[in-house]
Every structure is written in structure tokens, then in C-alpha cells.
Design goal:
Largest sheet: 7 strands, parallel
CATH superfamily: NAD(P)-binding Rossmann-like Domain
Shape: globular
CATH class: Alpha Beta
CATH architecture: 3-Layer(aba) Sandwich
CATH topology: Rossmann fold
Low-confidence stretches: 255-261
Strand content: 5-15%
Oligomer: single chain
Number of domains: 1
Radius of gyration: 19 Å
Structural class: alpha/beta
Number of helices: 8
Helix content: 40-55%
Number of strands: 9
Distance between the termini: 60 Å
Mean pLDDT: 91
Length: 261
């Protein structure tokens, strides 16, 4: 008996890690529901994979749109979701002399509240999959290694990802064992988001490398995925030795940023 292809929902599928994940899943034969804010990017993705890519444009911060997302005609036939990877996210840097509350609201709305709304939308279909499958459905979301230690100007981004990480840790307690919840902690990944950075980004991976490692790891249903491992080890050490991190490394990073062109 032939096993039907898995069905995955990817948010943030229009660019970056989300786009690379959608492509990698489609190439291996899974069916992908691709969501993002830009319909034209999702349409291009469907043209690339016409047989197993369904575009589902949506702003994950829109409560009304998210309320009945899977009741829309293009996906109303779905009976299950075997996997969900929440990759929608933004980064805006803070100027400490102007702690703009609207900036914090924007970042938190997308990176945290958007994940909450997405999880709420997906849970019924994930539970359908879990009830009929021999292994747990998977719910994963892209957090960040910026949650390990403080970084300059990352007050909004880091706080939003820390909130997301705790949300997933707590959710894991309530959804196990039917649904496996995984927190993905990337370091620097080559995406349109990191193109705006004006500081050194060591150990950078391409979005395609990140997607390959994420999907390979998800087969084992882990609690977390870290990539690259060396960056994880470095920042774990920095968290254990905060005096060195905040006393030596951060001033050096700040100086390099100030002299950057």
C-alpha cells in the first residue's frame, strides 16, 4: 500500500528559510501549503511546483483572516496537516535613545502573536493527523539564538523570539505525545532579513543549508534544533560566562558596527 505524501503548512514561505523549506519539501514529494504576505511570491512558488504547492496568502497578524484560514476554498478539502513550520518573522533594530513602542508592537505582533494565531489555526488539522498516523504530527517554529544572550539593538527582536520559545516549551507539555513541538534556533542565515545587518555574522549558513538540516532533524521529532552547532556552543558558553560576553565581546561588536561603511 502506497503511503500518501505528507501535508505541510509553511508560514513565511515567500522568502528566506520559509521559502527554502517549502521548496525542499516539494522536491521530496510532500504537499505544501505555502503562506506569506506577498501573493506574487507564492504564485511564483506554485509555478515552480504546480503539482504539490498550494499558495495560501495571509498576514499572520490578521486575527480575522486567521480565524477561518483553513475554511478558505483553496484548502477547505484538507483533512489533516502532518507538519507545520512557522517561519514568518521580521527584525527591526532599536535605537536606545528612542524606544519606539510601535516598533516593539510590530515585531511582537509578527514574531509572537502571529505564531499564536497560526498555532490556533493549525491545531485541529494537526490533531486529525495525529489521530490517524503512526507517529506524532509536528509543530515547529523558527526562534533564534539571539535568545541565548543580549545583542546590541535587538531588544524587540530578541524579546519576541524569547516569548516564542517559551510559548513552544509550554505548548510541548500540553500537546505531547500526539503532537511533537520543536523549537528551531538558527544562528545567522543568509536571507533578505540578514542583508540589513551592519555587523559581522560568523558561521553563516545559506537558507538552503538551513532547510536541509531542519528537515533532516525533524524526522526524529526533536524538542529543539540548533544550527550551526558551533554557534550554539559559542553562545552557550557566552551565557555561562556573562562577564566575558558583556565586558569584552559586546563592546567589540559595537565598535565594529560604528566603523562599518
Amino acid at each position: 500500500m502506497t503511503t500518501p505524501p505528507s501535508v505541510y503548512w509553511i508560514t513565511g514561505a515567500g522568502s528566506g528559510i520559509g521559502l527554502a523549506l517549502a521548496r525542499a519539501l516539494a522536491r521530496r514529494g510532500d504537499h505544501v501549503i505555502a503562506s506569506g504576505r506577498r501573493p506574487e511570491a507564492l504564485a511564483a512558488l506554485q509555478q515552480e511546483f504546480p503539482d504539490n504547492m498550494t499558495p495560501l496568502p495571509v498576514d499572520v497578524t490578521d486575527k480575522v483572516a486567521m480565524e477561518d484560514l483553513f475554511g478558505r476554498p483553496e484548502v477547505a478539502h484538507l483533512k489533516r496537516l502532518d507538519g507545520v513550520i512557522l517561519s514568518a518573522g521580521i527584525c527591526e533594530y532599536v535605537h536606545v535613545d528612542n524606544l519606539d513602542p510601535t516598533l516593539f508592537e510590530r515585531v511582537m505582533q509578527t514574531n509572537f502573536q502571529g505564531a499564536v494565531l497560526s498555532t490556533r489555526a493549525a491545531l485541529p488539522l494537526l490533531r486529525q493527523s495525529a489521530a490517524s498516523a503512526s507517529r506524532p504530527a509536528v509543530l515547529a517554529a523558527v526562534s533564534s539564538m539571539s535568545t541565548y544572550v543580549g545583542f546590541p539593538r535587538a531588544q524587540a527582536y530578541g524579546a519576541s523570539k524569547a516569548a516564542l520559545s517559551y510559548f513552544l516549551d509550554s505548548l510541548r507539555c500540553d500537546l505531547a505525545p500526539e503532537i511533537s513541538v520543536c523549537t528551531i534556533y538558527p544562528g545567522f542565515i543568509e536571507t533578505p532579513m540578514t542583508e540589513q545587518n551592519d555587523f559581522p555574522m560568523p558561521m553563516m549558513l545559506s537558507a538552503e543549508q538551513a532547510a536541509h538540516r531542519i528537515l533532516s532533524a525533524l524526522e526524529k521529532r526533536p524538542r529543539r534544533i540548533v544550527l550551526p552547532w558551533r554557534m550554539h556552543a559559542l553562545l552557550t558558553l557566552a551565557r555561562a560566562l556573562p562577564g566575558i560576553w558583556y565586558g569584552m565581546a559586546i563592546p567589540r561588536l559595537t565598535r565594529q558596527r560604528r566603523v562599518a561603511p
